[in-house]
From TrEMBL, chains A, B:
Name of the protein: Kynureninase
A single GO BP: L-kynurenine catabolic process
InterPro entries: Kynureninase, PyrdxlP-dep_Trfase, PyrdxlP-dep_Trfase_major, PyrdxlP-dep_Trfase_small
Keyword line: Aminotransferase, Hydrolase, Pyridine nucleotide biosynthesis, Pyridoxal phosphate, Transferase
Catalytic reactions on record: 3-hydroxy-L-kynurenine + H2O = 3-hydroxyanthranilate + L-alanine + H(+); L-kynurenine + H2O = anthranilate + L-alanine + H(+)
Keyword Transferase assigned: yes
Gene Ontology terms: cellular component: cytoplasm
SUPFAM superfamilies for this protein: PLP-dependent transferases
PANTHER family, A to Z: KYNURENINASE
EC number: 3.7.1.3
Family: Belongs to the kynureninase family.
Length: 414, 414
């Protein structure tokens, strides 16, 4: 009987991933359903960072660039993230913020189609993607067409022969809807375009195979499902076929073919090294590296399977009457926004409620960490790596309590 | 008699800044003369970072963005760096790498003079500055003129009415030569241009007053004289008079006027907040913040006075005969490249030697950390905050030992 806490506890006892929960420093009394915004602290990180700071920086000083592998870290960590997204070695590099990497990737993508005057940008994407696409279009003198992902096919037809780069979000940050990367990329290629994917809400959450899907360029965030810590550096992926012609605007000296020649002219390095920018933020970068271990050990596929189960469980609980006399979820002003089909959703479930910001704040006060997005969306991230069935049960129970207190819009608190 | 170690020890005993040496975790048996590349570990950093990681991230999760001041950190740390460079509050922001900030600053500077077709770039600047200036010129369709700082006046005359932005290095990373920021900026303004300064080798090393000097925009490095750790985030300064019109290309969501509205259009924040980019690298950023304390306590002016004394001392020792029968420095193939005048040099002293890379490697083996720059320059950074007279004495003694073993170019090792 899954509407009891005992049922949830039993699932957790039988859960092969439950061993990974202890790899995260989850605060007592807190249910972390916000890993799509900031992943929790992996236990390995503090000691790893202390070693980097006290031993490598403190004792080795500049020798650490070679002896401790700092110089190679952007591509070494890139390769580790690459394995999590289906990228072969030497196709992923880590550094800077997601916004900066988006700028770099979209500019380079548009330059791969210099004769195409239109840049397409997913209008449902996270705002920073849209702002940077706008900036690139302006700098390159391109016409910017914004379209929701669902209408991309129509845009590709309408601007056939004109569309160069297309910036797409893999998972809708609001609704949690997952797009078909492989099919969409094929459609983009059929139209002669270059597909740039923002994988921020997909990397580490959903099994990806960017190589097989033919993705041209991709960018993603280090601090959501990768749990790399606040503001962890972002990653940039480029298909190997583009490496020789990738013409990136952020020509920092670490991307030079021979950086220590200190040469007059920028000569891009071969391979993905050309997408290095300036000196990497070593402390943030190596915290991210240490954070990857539990996810690598569990495997994205297994985490995904459990996350989907948790999502199904949550949506069923939300729809249940709260007690024998209670009304089902929809009567509490809640609506599940995220598609129920497994192949059409990421790892967060979005609920619509007219007072989502208040609900999220009230949940936070009661130790359930979620967030809201304007105007009326409540997001609950179910990362199977550390979220349990019991967490979901308790979170929904708390949500019911909160909804008894937070009136629906239009109602007056009684 | 300053050619004795006793003399150096006496100077250290009388040195009011000697108390700050213990604020840095200097490895035993190592003389750190490389703070212009990577400042040593300030003792306050490991515990501060551990608090950020275990307590703030680990326990507060996303609440730390407000409760622990993460959201404000880019401008809060910016203001602290601002005080070190003579910038009033609200004019400096921290984030990303120096290369990225250069791109952002130079693009915005050129856009402040949309009718000017020429971008000028200091040809003696660090390579990344030159590469990014090249990239900006290409994106904006500007003609790039590269000139050594000493010939800038001539370039401003030749391209009168055409020059928009000028990217200058405050301290020559090779020779250690310091340029007159105030006078050069006045010359640039007289020509109708916008002065962008790279302060990487000046911030924290040389007393600066960017506000009084009329600097338009400036960028600098967090891990040299600010000792913020490997790849510490860079800073960007903008004069307040430009804030309303500053049109930056890296329009990340943190620079939005109302970032949590998640609005369709980028509306830049007022003030320096518009120069925020993506989510800041909190771990690297807060390590930098903790690192600033000793420098703030000592004051840049006092550190500079001592650094100049150390530089004078080093150049005198280098010129001395090594012993009663020895030859002076110049006969060992050494030449002091850095100007001797205090108002014309930064805080590193550059020596020319035909085999500088070998000399630097041999010094490193003996615990004296320096570096070399192609083709023949050896750099010794004298940061008065933690370098002592005894360090200088011992380093020069070691240099003499090394030079007995490393033959000059053209000679065959005996």
């Amino acid at each position: 009987m899954e509407s009891t806490r005992e049922w949830a506890e039993k699932q957790d006892l039988e859960d092969p991933l439950s061993v990974f929960r202890k790899e995260f420093a989850l605060p007592t009394g807190v249910i972390q359903l916000n890993g799509n915004s900031l992943g929790p602290l992996p236990r390995a990180v503090p000691d790893a960072l202390d070693e980097v700071v006290r031993h490598q920086w403190g004792e080795h000083l500049i020798r650490a660039w070679s002896e401790d592998g700092w110089w190679d870290a952007p591509v070494r960590v890139g390769d580790r993230i690459g394995r999590l997204i289906g990228a072969g070695a030497g196709r992923t590099v880590v550094g800077e913020s997601t916004s900066v990497q988006l700028f770099n990737a979209v500019t380079a993508a548009a330059r791969l189609r210099p004769d195409r005057p239109v840049l397409v940008s997913d209008s449902t994407n996270f705002p920073t993607d849209r702002y940077l696409a706008t900036s690139v279009a302006r700098l390159l003198g391109l016409r910017l067409i914004e379209t929701p992902m669902g209408e991309l096919g129509e845009v590709l037809r309408r601007y056939r022969g004109e569309v160069g780069a297309i910036l797409c979000g893999a998972v809708d940050f609001r609704t949690g809807e997952l797009w078909d990367i492989s099919r969409t990329t094929a459609d983009i290629h059929a139209a002669g375009g270059i597909a740039v994917w923002d994988l921020s809400h997909a990397a580490g959450a959903v099994p990806l195979d960017v190589d097989a899907a033919g993705v041209d360029l991709a960018v993603g965030c280090g601090y959501k499902y990768l749990s790399g810590g606040p503001g962890a550096p972002a990653f940039l992926y480029s298909a190997a076929r583009h490496h020789d012609t990738l013409d990136l605007p952020l020509t920092g000296w670490h991307g030079h073919a021979r950086p220590f020649d200190m040469a007059d002219e920028f000569v891009p390095a071969s391979g993905i090294d050309r997408a290095r920018t300036g000196t990497p933020h070593v402390l943030s970068l190596l915290a991210l590296e240490a954070a990857l271990e539990p996810l690598e050990a569990a495997g994205v596929a297994a985490v995904r399977r459990k996350s989907l189960r948790l999502g199904d469980y949550l949506t069923r609980l939300v729809a249940e009457p709260s007690d024998a006399s209670g009304a089902p979820g929809s009567d509490r002003g809640l609506e599940v926004v995220t598609p129920s089909a497994h192949d059409r959703r990421g790892n967060h479930i979005t609920l619509r409620h007219a007072r989502a910001p208040e609900v999220s704040a009230a949940l936070m006060e009661r130790g359930v960490v979620t967030d809201s997005r304007p105007p009326d969306l409540l997001r609950l991230c179910l990362n199977g790596l550390y979220v349990s069935h019991t967490d979901v049960f308790d979170a929904v129970a708390t949500l019911r309590d909160v909804l008894r207190e937070v009136p629906r819009a239009g109602e007056v608190a009684g």
